[in-house]
Amino acid sequence: MSESPETVGTDLPVRDVVGVGFGPANLALAIAIEEHNAECPPRERISAQFFEKQDRFGWHPGMLLDGATMQIAFPKDLVTFRNPRSAFTFFNYLFDQGRLVDFVNHQTFFPTRHEFHDYLQWAARRVDADVRYGTAVEAVRGIRGDDGVIDRFEVRTADGSTVIARNVVMGAGLRERIPEWANPSARCFHNHQFLFRLGEMPAPAHHRFVVLGAGQSAAEIVQYLHGNYPEAEVHSVFSRYGYSPADDSPYANRIFDPEAVDDLHGAPEAERLRLLDVHRSTNYSVVDIELINELYATEYQERVRGRRRLFMRRASEIIAVDETSDGIEVAVRSGVDGLTDTLACDALILATGFTPAPLEPLLGDLAPKTHPPREVGRDYRLAVSPDVTAGIYLQGGTEKTHGITSSLLSNVAVRAGEIVTSVVTRRGRNGTLASVNAQDTYATSEAR
Questions:
Q1: What is the mean pLDDT of residues 260-264?
Q2: What is the annotated signal peptide range for this record (predicted)?
């Protein structure tokens, strides 16, 4: 359970951990804290509070497309790789929902995105954590003691409330990557909000859509639009010659293993960046081969029957957009022949990926000078000046230092345990919290 806050030299509550954001990463952290607190004496428990700007827990609800499946196996849930005996495993969720036998009979490692989202919501309801939904963090500022050292942070929220934290865990997530030429509107929007924007979109007049992007999300949206708008054309625009299949072979998938974080963080920077580039095909601008085959079969059958609705605009780019009274005109230029087609469309969907949320707006002078940061400890603690002993931990934005799992679900369980371990051991140096024991399920083998 989450410990009650204390007060130190102030009427404001002081917590060991304050989490900014409450997505899957900080949800996994809250579970690790609960399991730590259940295994140690009261004086060694961690007090924590989380702030989430959304009104309730949600994980990419705008992309919960019917039939879309996860790209990671279900054991990479919130806890299993850290503590398979946890009550928060995906298996226990299935048992609690009365679907364990049915899921096993389904013979798949990859649940639908709907089901995994339901699992995350189930875990968010069950965890004993102090979460303030509908509350955005506005600023994190250091508090200097009499010795001039910053050993605590003042965390201010948009509603004017303040809490004191010994450690801040940044789980603010990702920011949509929007092309410079794009002006987001009701007809031009990022895929992150796809289902919501589609529901708000004016009635189709041209029965034509353009989807920009070559990754899994782009391909899923192309398939969704083609199937749900049977009278509409769907134009998939990407710079490649064709969709590239994701490399999910067993050896390549080792880049997502918890041990890979040790290897990459300890490697020379040049070698780390080389490995990340070599293995981009495991995650970036790639599509599951089954979906590629389905789209190809659809396009081929349309050629056979003579009525085309699905168009692959390969080796192409969008060079101009112009919104009109009843739609949006999209100019698509082919890099192969140099010709440009202007398509009168009902919507342009930007499946253009994400970038880590910048730290400077919240951390101010405490933020690193580079984005993403280049100096992050193996325990995900941001390297700051020597006069800062309070901890800033990053749940994301650490791909350049820790590997591809930085912004993915693959490593949230182990990373949460490592952050709890770091908080405990750093406090242990001052005799406040317990040291890490080998049997503690929140601890990982690297930190014991």
A1: 96
A2: none
Question: Please, which pLDDT band fits residue 7 given cuts at 50, 70 and 90?
Answer: very low
3-state secondary structure string, 238-249?
CCCCCCCECCCC
DSSP character at residue 13: -
Exposure of 9 in the CB half-sphere (CA atoms within 13 A): 6
Class of domain 14-175+355-429: alpha beta
Query: Which listed CATH number (3.50.50.60, 3.40.50.1400, 2.70.20.10, 1.20.1050.10) goes with 178-246+284-350?
Result: 3.50.50.60
pTM of this structure: 0.92
pLDDT digits (tens, 9 = 90+) for 242-256: 999 999 999 999 999
Q: Quick check: 114 and 130 in contact, CB under 8 A? A: no
SS3 295: helix
Which residue, chain included where needed, has tokens 């804290």?
Answer: 33
Q: Which of 155, 314, 290 is nearest to 223 (CA)?
A: 290
Res 101 pLDDT > 70: yes
Structure tokens at 40: 């140690």
Burial class of residue 23 (count of CB atoms within 10 Å of its CB; 0-12, 13-18, 19+): buried
Q: Where do runs of H (alpha helix) occur along 155-247?
A: 194-200, 216-228
273-310 per-position pLDDT tens digit: 999 999 999 999 999 999 999 999 999 999 999 999 99
Per-residue pLDDT, 439: 56
For residue 226, the number of C-alpha atoms closer than 13 Å in the C-beta half-sphere is: 22
- What SS3 state is found at 428? helix
Please give the Cα distance from 46 to 57 (Å, whole number): 23
Measured CA to CA, the distance from residue 241 to residue 263 in angstroms comes to: 34
β-pair partners for 348: 188, 210
Question: Token digits for 292?
Answer: 């590629």
Q: Where in the chain is the domain with CATH 3.50.50.60?
A: 14-175+355-429, 178-246+284-350
Per-residue pLDDT tens over the stretch 331-349: 999 999 999 999 999 999 9
- Cα distance between the two ends of the chain: 23
Integer Cα distance of 22 and 29 in angstroms? 9
Distance CA 222, CA 215 (A): 11
Helix (H, G, I), strand (E, B), or coil: what is residue 162? strand
The angle formed by the CA atoms of residues 9, 12 and 17, to the nearest 5 degrees, is: 100
